[in-house]
Amino acid sequence: LASAELYDPSSGTFTATGSMSVPRGLQSATLLQDGRVLIAGGQDNQGYLSSAELYDPRTGTFSPTGSMDVALTNTPVVLLKDGQVLIVGGGYGQLYDPKTDAFSLTGSLPKNDDSPATLLPDGKVLVAQQGFGDAEIYDPKSRTFSDSGLFLKHGPDTATLLQDGSVLLVVGGGPYLYTQ
User: Left, alpha or beta for 128 (phi > 0: left; psi -120 to 50: alpha)?
Assistant: First the structure.
């Protein structure tokens, strides 16, 4: 569907808002620092989408923005401290820069669709490989991925940043704790 609704937690109701430019499902939605929402990728009846659009809550409208270099669906997305958005999947990292409304490839890593990605206190991102066992660290300064030194027997289902800066990874083989 291309339709969208806003949820008001104080009244517990949904209200229709503008429609997306294309129907999509399993897309990512990321709140940007300026209050807009980046809707990226997903899929339609034809397959995965590389298109993206921005929702502006002030006007209640969607507008197309740049397209991803690699079409993705249901992938981890992290808002970086500098306001850029890291999208991980299909063997690549992709960055969305809201200042230029453009996507660019950044680093490569093993195929890791649906892997949890967690922003760390130092601004780096922990990407735990779903089904591969390795966990990678994305460094936004060098725009590269590197081995974290953490090996998991099974890819994690969730990754949660704890108050002390460590990450709790819950996996089928037992919980793990990642500490920088």
Answer: beta
The pLDDT tens digits for 103-149 are: 999 887 755 556 788 999 999 998 886 555 577 889 999 999 887 77
> What does the alpha-carbon distance between residue 172 and residue 121 come to, in Å, rounded to a whole number?
26
Q: What is the pLDDT of residue 8?
A: 93
Nearest to 66 by CA among 85, 50, 78, 88: 50
Cβ-Cβ contacts under 8 Å for 4 (sequence gap 6 or more): 16, 17, 18, 19, 20, 55, 62
- CA distance linking residue 48 with residue 25, whole number of Å: 9
Residue 119: partners with Cβ closer than 8 Å, 6 or more residues away: 78, 79, 80, 81, 125, 161
Mean pLDDT of 74-85: 93
Contact assessment for residue 29 and residue 38, using Cβ atoms and an 8 Å cutoff: yes
